[in-house]
Amino acid sequence: MAISTTGPALAADRALLSDRWLALAAWAFVAGLSIVQTVLHPQAFFLSTDDAMRLTEVRDLLAGQGWFDLTQQRMNVPFGVAMHWSHVVDAGIAALILLFRMFANTQTAETGALWAWPLLTLLPAFFALRTIGARLAGREGAAIVLLLGVSCLALLGIFQPGRIDHHNLQLALGISMVACLIEYKEPKGMALAGGLAAFSLAIGLETLPYVLLAGAVVGVIWVIQGSPLKPAMRVFGGVFAGAAAILFFAATATAERVTASCDTYSLFYAPLAMTGGIGLVAMGTITMTSLRDRAFAFAGLAIVLVALAASINPQCLAGPLSTIDAQLDAIWLSRIEEVQPAWRFAFLEPGYFVSGYLYALACFLATLAAAGIASRELRAPWIVLALFNAMALAIATAEVRGMNFAILFGLPGMAGFVAMAAARIQSSKLSSLGRAGVVIIALFLASNVAFEFASRAFASSAKDEQSVAHSGFTCFQAATLQVLDTLPPGRIAAFIDQGPGILAYTKHAVVAGPYHRGANGIIDTYTIFAGREAQARQILEQRGIDYVVVCPSSPDYTYYGQRNGLIARLQRHDVPHWLTPMTASTPELQIFRVVGDKL
Does the pTM exceed 0.90? Predict the structure, then answer.
C-alpha cells in the first residue's frame, strides 16, 4: 500500500496501519496464550474425530497418495471409502510439516504443524473483524470488536492447537468474504470476495448458504442501485466463475469431476457456480436503466440456476445430505449433538447453549439495533452484515453446528452497538469516572465472558461431571487407542467415533468412521454390536475382522447395550465363544480377538 505523505490522507493511512497492528497484536496475544496453555496443560491438546481424520489424510498425501485420490483405504475395510473432503486443507498442513522438517524430526515437525495451522487461520479472521469494525463504527469499532474476539471463549476453541479440521479455515474465509462485501462498491474487494467464495466451496459445503447469500446480496444491490454497482458485480461474478472453474479442475477429486455429488464440490456445484458467475458478469455488462428490468433479469438468472440444478441432479436441491440412507439417520446421524436444533441442544448442553447460542442471538439483536440507528450512508453495509448474521443464526437454530459462524458474524455488530452506546454515554452528564465505569460495564456485558459466567448457573456441576464421564471423549484419544498399536496390524470393529483415531494413532484398519459416505460401515458396525448374532458373525467374516474393540465410557456402549446384541451380552459378562479377551485390554478399552474358525 502506498502511504501518503501529506495532510488528512497521511493521518488516515497511519490510522489504518495502526488498526492493522492492533489486529496483529490481538492475534499474537491469543496465539501466545494458547501456546502457553497447551504447554502448561498438555492434556488440553487433543484431536477431535475430524482432526484425527485430517491428520490421516495429510500423512497419506505426504506418503504419496495422489492429489486427486481421496479414497481412505483403511476405513470401511476392505472396501475403502471416498472422502467428501478435498486435499486443499491437507496441502496447507503438509506444507507446514515439510517446512518444519527442515529444522526438526518428522514427529516434531508434525506436532508443530498441529499447533501452527489453527492459529494461522485465526489471523485473517482477526484482520477481517478489524476491517468490518472500522468500516461500520470507526477506530472505536475496530478496537472493540478485537477486544470481543480476544475474549470470545465460545469461538476461540476451534482455533486452538490441534484443531486442524477445515472448519476454522472456513470461518476465516467466511468473515473475510463479508468484510469485502460490505465494501460492495469497491471492485478490488469484490474480486477478492468472489475468489474467497469459490475457494470456501472447494474446501467444504458448510459455507454454501453464505456463498448463495453473497451472490444474492450482490444481485439485489445491483437491482436497487443500478449502474454504480456494475463494475463491482462484474468482477465479483467473473472472479467467482473463474475460480470455480480452476478449483474444479485443479482441486477436485477425479471421481467428483465426473459425478454430480450433492455432498461435496463436484460436477453438480461447479457448473452452477460458473453459470451464476457468468450471469452476474452479463447483467453487469448490459445496460438496464429500469429497476423492473434489473429485477426481472436477476430473477431470470435465479430461475436458470434452479432449472440447471434440477437437470443435473434434482436430489441435490434438497441439500447436501439429501441422499443419506434413512437407516443411517436413525442409528447414527440423529444421535449426533451438533446436528440437533437449538431448542433440543438447550437440554443436552445447557451451559454451552447459554455461552454459545444465546450469545450469538444477543450479537444478532445488537446488530439489528445498530443497523436501525446507523447513519444513512452506513445503513446498507449494516444491512449486509445483518443478513449474514441472520443466515448464520437461522442455521445455528436448525443445527447448532452453525453456531460458530453465527458468533463470528455477530461480533462486529455487537462491537458497533457498543461503540454507538459508548459515544452516547460519553456525551451524557455523568462524571468522567462514572462514564468510564458505565462503558466498562457495557463492554463486559457485551462480551462472551459475561455469558460464560451466566452459563454456569444453567449447568450444574453434577450434570457437567456426568456429561464428561459419559461423553466418550477418552474413547478416541491417543492415550487410550495407542495400546492397540502393540497388536499385530489387523482389521478392527470399533465404535464409530473411534475410527479416525485408530487410523491416526495405529497401523490398523477400521470398519467405520463418523462419515456418511461410509454408510455401509456404519450400518455394519451397528449390526456387529447391536444386531442379531448370526448377522454380526457374518459381517465379521466377510470383512475379515481380526479384533473387536469396546469402550465402556462411550454413549454408543449404552445405546448398543439397549439392544439385544453383542454389547448387551458383554454387559452381562457373557463373552461369546467366537471372541477371546486379550491381555492388552485396559480399563478404558476392552479388546477381543476374533476366532475366525468359530464364526
Answer: yes
